């Protein structure tokens, strides 16, 4: 039996027990549904283990040489590549992706740009008080899920942080308060107890609530008597009391607040609220955790920042990074590309139809281990190993802690890792 | 009827999971859904498993209704998927996939297959 790290989501649980003979994984103990699915991907029916090229509208199995030849032909006959994905790849593969983008004067970005990258960008001005999962387990007494359905997106987050006893606390769940701010009664509400606080905020009114809380921090009794954001005055007051009275509180920021109207302002105001409360706090502090879904979404920001000084929207020209106001969305919307390299993601499932159509109008090179919507549109499909199961690598957990992932079994057909594959493309480009 | 659409991730209704373990039929049955409060269902004079047409400023889609009392009145939750993406869009270079204002009406039209939607993206 081996203890391994799960790459089913960005929590990167390191307490999964597996039984393996090095060829197959026979048993998986302790993984959630998402984690189990990740391991099941090895033999899933949509697993890709051979390269494919689209011929006469159909994907045809081809040799690696033929697939690489097609990739190089697309690259040599085009000049505006777009590279996207990478949040389901190791940091090593992300680095190779950035170096490939540099070599071919491309524009590269990860899924983070439409998710927690937004929070990171806003924090450049105000700073951000972060924390780690270990500190949350050991010290936190108040947990706030803001626009986050943890039960569905990070299934073991509450197991680990709400129901555990910390090193510095004699008690566990019974002294911890859970506050959920969400317009929808999601499955996460199912774990709430009598001392917890459910705030069914009206859609798009997060900014209003944050401003009311900020005002109350500065001037006592300024909460409107009618409440705000669809919440009662007493609930808003109770929330602030929890924030100010907590020895240690953590706010898990989810998609709900990232996508609220005027989200940049809401996030900025939220970061300011945290700082405001922290200044007034005598006992402890409030910290924040950015919750992304993919297991290494945080990694791309770290790798890109280290390699180029920018964490997203990287545009290269003459093999140098240049200033650009473009985003992956504006690039696709304005059709400012002539082919794409998609790595480990399915834009068809998360981008609007209008963007998918534009992506599909140009050649697509897909690097992935599974068939999905995008593989039905790709011109070349290159299979790779599953990181953390069939190849090793580094990933950043949602609390920005780097975690080493091990290789557990050999990949089918000896398919390369994302890193090895991207390296081979760079090598072949150099030889041409 | 005017309502608000949120695209949401639900473990039981997950496009990636259906690609892995299901087929085109199970994909459509488990993902092409609109979760809606029973009160709104009454207002539309419909029952669970009926089809509705949802239209946003970006497009429209036919989905099967599923009654869910956890969804607030006036809101429709749709699993993140190729079907949901018929309604989402871009404004000021930002993706709009939550709190979308939509028009909802009963429909006798069928829910499109995954393949049909792929063909909408890239016609042969």
How would you portray this structure in words?
The complex is a heterodimer of chains A (432) and B (124). With 432 residues, chain A is of the alpha/beta class. Chain A has 2 domains: 48-112 and 295-395 and 410-431, 3-Layer(aba) Sandwich (Rossmann fold); 117-290, Dimethylsulfoxide Reductase, domain 2 (3-Layer(aba) Sandwich), CATH 3.40.228.10. Chain A is 35% helix and 19% strand. Chain A has helices spanning 33-40, 64-76, 91-103, 117-126, 133-139, 150-153, 157-161, 206-218, 233-245, 255-258, 263-280, 297-308, 328-333, 347-350, 353-360, 418-431, and strands at 2-4, 16-20, 25-29, 52-55, 58-61, 81-85, 107-110, 142-146, 177-181, 197-199, 248-253, 285-290, 314-317, 320-322, 339-343, 364-368, 380-383, 393-396, 402-405. In chain A, the strands form 4 sheets. A 9-stranded mixed β-sheet of chain A has the order 5-4-17-16-15-6-7-13-14. Chain A has a 5-stranded parallel β-sheet with strand order 10-9-8-11-12. The radius of gyration of chain A is 23 Å and the shape is globular. The model of chain B has no long low-confidence stretch (mean pLDDT 93). Chain B has one domain (2-121): Beta Barrel (Barwin-like endoglucanases), CATH 2.40.40. The longest helix of chain B is centred in the N-terminal third of the chain and has 8 residues, at 24-31. Chain B has helices at 15-21, 24-31, 38-43, 114-121, and strands at 2-8, 33-36, 51-55, 60-67, 75-79, 89-91, 94-96, 100-106. At the A-B interface, helix 1, helix 13, helix 14 and helix 15 of A face strand 1, helix 1, strand 7 and helix 4 of B.
């Amino acid at each position: 039996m081996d203890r391994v790290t799960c790459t089913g989501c960005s929590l990167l649980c390191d307490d999964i027990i597996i039984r393996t003979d090095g060829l197959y994984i026979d048993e998986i103990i302790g993984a959630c549904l998402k984690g189990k699915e990740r391991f099941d991907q090895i033999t899933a029916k949509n697993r890709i283990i051979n390269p494919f090229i689209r011929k006469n509208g159909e994907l045809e199995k081809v040799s690696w040489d033929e697939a690489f030849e097609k990739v190089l032909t697309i690259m040599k006959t085009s000049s505006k590549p777009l590279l996207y994905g990478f949040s389901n790849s190791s940091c090593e593969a992300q680095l190779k992706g950035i170096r490939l983008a540099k070599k071919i004067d491309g524009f590269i970005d990860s899924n983070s740009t439409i998710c927690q990258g937004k929070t990171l960008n806003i924090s450049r001005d105000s700073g951000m008080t972060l924390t780690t999962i270990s500190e949350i387990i050991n010290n936190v007494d108040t947990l706030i899920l803001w626009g986050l359905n943890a039960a569905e997106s990070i299934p073991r987050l509450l197991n680990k942080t709400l129901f555990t006893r910390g090193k510095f606390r004699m008690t566990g769940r019974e002294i911890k308060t859970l506050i959920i701010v969400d317009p929808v009664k999601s499955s996460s509400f199912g774990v709430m107890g009598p001392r917890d606080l459910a705030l069914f905020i009206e859609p798009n009114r997060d900014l209003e609530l944050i401003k009311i809380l900020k005002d109350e921090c500065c001037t006592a009794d300024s909460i409107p008597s009618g409440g705000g954001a669809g919440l009662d005055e007493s609930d808003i007051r109770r929330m602030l009391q929890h924030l100010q009275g907590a020895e240690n509180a953590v706010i898990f920021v989810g998609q709900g607040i990232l996508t609220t109207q005027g989200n940049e302002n809401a996030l900025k105001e939220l970061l300011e609220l945290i700082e405001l409360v922290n200044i007034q706090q005598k006992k402890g502090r409030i910290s924040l955790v950015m919750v992304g879904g993919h297991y290494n979404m945080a990694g791309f920001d770290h790798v890109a920042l280290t390699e180029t000084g920018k964490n997203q929207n990287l545009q290269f020209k003459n093999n140098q990074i240049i200033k650009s106001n473009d985003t992956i969305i504006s690039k696709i919307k304005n059709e400012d590309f002539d082919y794409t390299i998609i790595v480990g993601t399915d834009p068809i499932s998360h981008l609007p139809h209008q963007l998918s159509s534009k992506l599909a109008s140009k050649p697509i090179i897909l690097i992935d281990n599974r068939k999905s919507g995008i593989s039905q549109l790709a011109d070349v499909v290159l299979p790779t190993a599953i990181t953390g199961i069939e190849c090793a690598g580094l990933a950043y957990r949602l609390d920005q802690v780097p975690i080493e992932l091990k290789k557990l079994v050999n990949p089918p057909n000896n398919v390369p890792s994302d890193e090895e594959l991207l390296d081979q493309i760079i090598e072949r480009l150099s030889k041409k | 009827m005017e309502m608000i659409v949120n695209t949401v991730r639900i473990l039981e209704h997950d496009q990636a999971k259906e690609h892995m373990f299901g087929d085109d039929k199970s994909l459509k049955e488990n993902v092409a859904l609109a979760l809606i409060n029973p009160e709104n269902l009454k207002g539309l004079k419909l029952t669970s498993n009926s089809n509705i047409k949802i239209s946003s400023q970006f497009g429209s889609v036919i989905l099967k209704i599923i009654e869910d009392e956890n969804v607030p009145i006036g809101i429709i939750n749709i699993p993140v998927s190729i079907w949901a993406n018929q309604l989402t869009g871009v404004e000021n270079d930002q993706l709009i996939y939550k709190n979308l204002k939509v028009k909802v009406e009963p429909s006798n039209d069928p829910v499109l297959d995954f393949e049909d939607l792929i063909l909408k993206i890239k016609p042969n």
